[in-house]
Amino acid sequence: MNLAWFRGKGPQLDEHQRERLGRLLAAEVPDDRPLGQQRLVVLDLETSGLNMRRDLVLSIGAVVIRDDAIDLGEQFEVTLLRPVQPVSESVLIHGIAPSALAAGCDPAQALLDFMEFLGPSPLLAFHAGFDQRMLARALKQTLGYRLQHRFLDVAEMAPMLFPDSKPRHGGLDDWTEHFHLQVHQRHHASADALVTAELALILFSHARRQGIDSLAALDSRLEHWRRRQNAQML
């Protein structure tokens, strides 16, 4: 059978990239291990806009939480090659210059590098649904890879664990101000991942005081909290 036409419809990967893709580890399922024994990857993406069907991932930043601390020896940052990128409102916010995008890393290389860094670990992000869908779409289109890693949303964890604290809009800036965290740079993927990780450690500490000390328990409590929030909106 001639597969040239079929291959032409999918991602164009060289042999080495296909080998790397085949070696990626399967995602872990949240279990009952204490949070302090988990390796967690905190992710932030900068994108060309907020349209999850059309816009592109421009940069990826990530840090690792391990042993109840941010492991500064494990950080990830990459800007993707996007040579023809219009200057949108979003681009003006995150400040990634067209020259930086034109000199960026090949998207297949960048995404493989990130997935190798991620390994089987669960992911944390602020407004995780957006990052999850943007990353999943980029992986599917660029590598033909289906993302199955579990995401937990720090933007949901914060109001669930601190129901009496009501920052103005509930955004990352509001919660970092609420907990008096120092933010060195906003709308920069690695810096946003770092402050999200700092916020997550505060939330984990408070979760333990509420008897929540595993990803499985945290996942279950979040699901119950979502159902309660949805019911209150009806």
Automatic annotation (TrEMBL):
GO MF annotation list: 3'-5' exonuclease activity; DNA binding; DNA-directed DNA polymerase activity
Keyword annotations: Exonuclease, Hydrolase, Nuclease
SMART domains linked: EXOIII
Record-linked Pfam families: RNase_T
Domain Exonuclease: 39-209
GO biological process terms held by the UniProt record: DNA replication
One GO cellular component, as annotated: cytosol
Keyword Nuclease assigned: yes
Alphabetized InterPro entries for the sequence: DnaQ (IPR006054), Ribonucl_H (IPR013520), RNaseH-like_sf (IPR012337), RNaseH_sf (IPR036397)
Catalyzed chemical reaction(s): DNA(n) + a 2'-deoxyribonucleoside 5'-triphosphate = DNA(n+1) + diphosphate
EC code(s) of this entry: 2.7.7.7
Protein name (record): DNA-directed DNA polymerase
Species of the source: Pseudomonas mangrovi
